[in-house]
Amino acid sequence: TKPTRRSCNKAGPLEQEEAGPLEQEEAGPVEHEEEAEDEMCSEISALVLPYPELAPVVFFCLKQTTCPRSWCIRLVCTWFERVSMMVILLNCVTLGMYQPCENIDCSSQRCQVLQAFDAMIYIFFAVEMVVKMIALGIFGRSCYLGDTWNRLDFFIVMAGVVEYSLDLQNINLTAIRTVRVLRPLKAINRVPSMRILVNLLLDTLPMLGNVLLLCFFVFFIFGIIGVQLWAGLLRNRCYPEENFTLSSGMALPTPYYSPDEEDERPFICSLPQDNGIMSCADVPARREGGRVCCLDAEDAPGLCVDWNRYYTRCRTGRSNPHKGAINFDNIGYAWIVIFQVITLEGWVEIMYYVMDAHSFYNFIYFILLIIVSEHTPTVQ
Asked: Where is the composition biased (Acidic residues) (predicted)?
């Protein structure tokens, strides 16, 4: 005969011991039948849920059929994302219209209108976060914070809470306000194709590790070469001879020769032990009012005196070109120079500085650096 379903009352230990071999053989099919019934019940319960992919219960009491949560689920699954996208675009417009220099105290009508729009946009983002938390739940794989882009939205909303709380206390924290620029990133989560492209880009970042490592070696090797060859050379200037004094008691206009455009193109000379292009003998004559001065200080004091003829000794000074930013005095500044060279912006002037101070053949260093830097990504 077909075995019947097991009753709710379990048999005692004595009855289980008295069960014969026949009853033990019948117990096996009964257990398999119960497992099959449990699986069927779970499948039926999954079919009964309106949204099987969502958590059955959130906040310990809100089921999918509960009124607040069911309303939030329907709101999220329909036109809510389109409205959110329009609000994000509006926020981009308001952020672009903001003028921080003119709106320090926000006394103009334009600033007040933009501030009102910003408050309404923030309220919408906060309501959107709460609605999604009620619909999806907070923690879990398919819940709100289980998605990376939702975590970004959560961070933006929490930063807004800190910002507005500080405004109420008359505390201005500019660093918190900069989080507003992250709001347009919320659009990535609303456009599936854009989200796929961004995820692919983020997945390829680890693959760039070898390229970055090679770039580091290029910077390190060329930086060491530059420090060993040209440390301190870009501070060479033409000074007068030691213990130099004029018989007339007058002093030189500047301690060393500096052209009128000192900040743009300083005169860098070569030390006697180097083979640079420029020397103190190449210092041009002084010009005043478009005229070339050729008189000595003793001949006609107070007139057009060529003071530049007294700067005859090249030695190391204190200042580097471009307010001290361009030099090879240490590996840090060398990396800054290398970075500027590989950007192909102003690298010719830097090459001329080094050639003037050290040797004409230093151009080989810069040509090799540009070739290696330009072909490094292609090789990888």
From this structure: 15-35
What is d(CA 246, CA 101) in angstroms, rounded to the nearest whole number? 53
> Domain limits at 27?
1-7+15-48
Whose tokens are 């005692």? That residue is: 12
Buried b (16+ CB within 10 A) or exposed e, 85-123: eebbeebeebeeeeeeeeeeeeeeeebeebeeebeebbe
Range with lowest mean pLDDT among 135-144, 224-233, 308-317, 322-331: 135-144
* DSSP for 340-352, written as a single string: HHHTTSSHHHHHH
Calculated CA dihedral for residues 34, 36, 38, 40, nearest 10 degrees? -140
Q: How far is CA 333 from the centre of its chain?
A: 22
In a shared domain, residues 107 and 161 = yes
Q: How many residues does the chain have?
A: 380
Residue 91 lies in a domain: yes
CATH number for the domain that contains residue 331: 1.10.287.70
Q: Give per-residue pLDDT as tens, 144-190.
A: 788 888 888 888 888 888 877 776 555 556 666 777 777 887 787 77
Averaged pLDDT for residues 4-22: 43
